[in-house]
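Field: COMPLEX_INPUT
Field: COMPONENT_COUNT = two
Field: RESIDUE_TOTAL = 448
Field: MODE = joint
Values follow.
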Amino acid sequence: MQLLNILLDIAKTDSAEGYFPIGLQLLFAAGFVATMMVATHLLGPKRKTADKLENFASGIPTHGDARTPMAIKYFLVAILFVLFDVEVIFFYPYAVNFRELGWTGFWEVLLFVGFFLVGFIYIIKKGALKWED
Amino acid sequence: MQHVWIVLGVLFVLLNVAAGLIWVERRMLAMWQDRLGPNRAGPLGLLIVLADTLKLFFKEDWIPSFADKKIFVIAPAIVVASVLMSFVVIPFAPGIVVADLNIGVLFFLAMSSLGVYSIVLGGWASNNKYSLLGAMRGASQMIAYEVFMGLSLMGVVMMTGSFRLTDIVEAQRSVWFCFTQPLGLILFFIAGIAETHRLPFDIPESESELIAGFHSEYSGMKFGMFFIGEYLGVTLISAMTVTMFFGGWMGPEFLPGWAWFFIKTFAFILFFILLRASLPRPRYDQLMESGWKVLLPLVLVNILVTGAVLLYLKG
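Field: COMPLEX_OUTPUT
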C-alpha cells in the first residue's frame, strides 16, 4: 500500500504524460525498422542454389558448426560486469544527492570505494583479468 | 499533436544524417589518406548515398540455412531501434526534445547499452565461428566499457545535481563542463568509441582477422541496418558529448540553438572519422586490460575528486 502511494506520488510529480512521446518514438522507430526489413525481403532476388546455402568462409573447408565451447574468459568478464555494475549503480543516487549528504556522505562513499577496490584487487590477484595464460 | 511532429522531425533528421554519413565518412577518410574517395555519382559523389542504399535494397536478402532464423532477423532490428530510442532524451534546441525526462542520463545509458544484444544475438544466430568470436569479443568489450561509461558522466551529474539533460545544458551557461570535467570528457569519449565499436576499437568486426565478425553472414538491408546503427551510434555519442560537456545548444546569439547543436555534433562526428583514419587497432587483451585496470580506477578518482572539490567550495 505504501509502495503504491510512493508510486502515485512519483506519477504526480513527473506525470506519466511525459513518457507518452517515448511510446510514440518506439512506435515510429519499430515501424521504420519493420518497413526496411520487409522491403529488402520483397525487393531482393531469391535464387537459392545448393552451393550458396552452404557454410563457407574464404573457401576454406569448414569443420563442424559454431555450437562449440568458447573460452571461459568471456563468461568471466560477463560475471565481473554483473558484479561491478551492481556496485556502480550505488554511485548514481549518490551523484544527485551528494550536496545534501555533505561530508558525512563523502566519507561513507570513500569507504564504499575502499570495499570496491578490495574486491577489484582480489580479482586482479586471482588473474581474472589476465588474457594470456 | 506537437509530440508527433517532434518525433517525426527528429527521426527524419537522424536517418538523413545517418545516410549522409556514408558520403561524409568516405570523403573525409579519402581526404585524410590522400585518396579521391567517391566522386563519380552526382556532384562531388553525393549520389553515392542513393546508389548504396538502392543497391542494398536490391541485393538478395539471404538467410543462411544453418542460422537461427528468428534471432538472425531480430538482431539487426535491435541495433537501429535501440539507438533511435536513446535520442529520446537529447535536447536538440530549447523546447525541441522528444521527452524531457528527469532520468534522462539513466535512460540514455539504459537504451544505448541495449545495442550489445544485436551483436551477441547476430553473431550467435549466424552459427559461424568467426561471427561467434566477434560476438563474444563485442559483448565483453561493450559490457566492460559500459561499467565506467555511466560513472564518467556522474561528475557532470554531481555538478548539476540532476539527471535531466535540459538542466545539464542550462547549468553550462557560464562555463562548459569540458573545462571543469576534462577527465570525465576523455573517459566518456573513450567509452563511447568502445560502445559504438568504431575504429580503433572495432575488435568485434576487425575484417583482417574475423572477416567482419558478427555481421559476416548478413546481406541486403539487414547488413545495411548494422551500418545505419553504427552511424546513428556515432551521432548519438557525439550528440551526448556535446550535451554533457560542450554546452548543448548554447552559443553566441547570431545562430539559433539547433544550428549550434548541429555544428558541435558534426565536429565530433568528424573527430570519430579522423580517429578511424589515423589510429591502428589495439589487441583485444590490451583493450580489456586498459579498460579494467586503468580507466575504471580513473573514473572513481574523478568522482571522488569532483565530490571533494565541490564540497570544499561549498564549505
